[in-house]
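Quick one, T. Sequence first:
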Amino acid sequence: MAENKPITKNVDWMVVLIYIACLGIGWVNIYAAVYNPEVNMSMFDLGNNAGKQLMWIGTAAVLIICILVIDYKFYETFSFIIYAVIVFLLIVVLFAGSNINGSRSWIKFGAFSLQPAEFSKLAISLAISKYLSDPAISLTRKLKDYYPIMGIIALPAFLILLSNETGSMLVFASFAIVLYREGMPGFIPAIGMVTAALLIITLLFVKWYIAAVIIVIAGLAIWLMPVMTRRRGGLWATIIIAFVMIGIVFGVDFFMNNVLQKHQRGRIMVLLDPDSDPRGIGWNVIQSKIAIGSGGFSGKGFLQGTQTKFDFVPEQSTDFIFCTVGEEHGFIGSAVVVVLFVSLIARLVVLAERQRSRFARVYGYCVAGIIFFHFMVNVGMTIGLMPVIGIPLPFFSYGGSSLWSFSILLFVFLKIDAQRPFTLSRG
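Structure tokens:
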């Protein structure tokens, strides 16, 4: 039988210390990003983003205490209810939400705003974990067991897409990591990666050349294929795969022109050719790379970044906070941030693997996967390796909704993990 313990009993302090380090470094860099040398700005002034972020950090600390006080069984028991509440809020913002930066996904409370889309990651993580905690569910043997998971992810994804918050929706791709760990065949994520690769290759090269290469590779595969494999369907499987790949290649134009919006097409084209729109969509990435590159090995020094000081990089305290680190603290500072995130993600995977219940393990992988996706894409887009999709760097970027959602996501797992020694395994 589970036993209640003091709220800090068995909490993983390595994760807590990394969390505190990220908050501290992030807060300092938010101040650097908004610092104006002509104004006597204080880090504690609520009139700037640094002061507001400190307030959000304080409120996050209160939320963390509440999470640790609540019985760990609450999060599993009420998983679907939490999911339903967040879905309801996502519907509310479509009709009563405020439009900020072209996205109708905010609920305003006076001078402050809350973005339910940020909390959808928590809701989906809990719902998927609860669903997969059923021992009868098998992602290895039963195709029908995928349908509820697809529904759990698709509903909030659709609502978020309607509110024009595409970046938050794309984060849901991180759940593929969880499903793969729980038995999803490897060919399914492989299909996604091959499709993405074909999209990029098609935009760079002539379609007929790509189709010819696919046909040649398929022909070689059939020629080298053992006779028994051909007779067992290998021949037709190879032909079908080749035709599907060719179909994807020739369907790229339709996807780019009829599915993606103009700014989304522009971001992809800028990723392939940063100089294609240097004063438009490509401006952020170009200036971000200049800022990071100018930092050199040890950086220009705290509050000494010229790209930062003169506002060359828009959204520098939010989505592009990493370029502030690169410019003012150089390779050393950037490496510290990368090491912190790699250490955090690795530790979360270790904690997830030691869980005694499937619910806890799945939820732990959800947390690790979401943080990994945000880290990979956010840092990647500041150095020109990923398209700009507008997602924050966890614990670093300015924003109350982002900080709250990541803090809750992380500390719910730490609460569940803290009770592991007192919890019997349930499969």
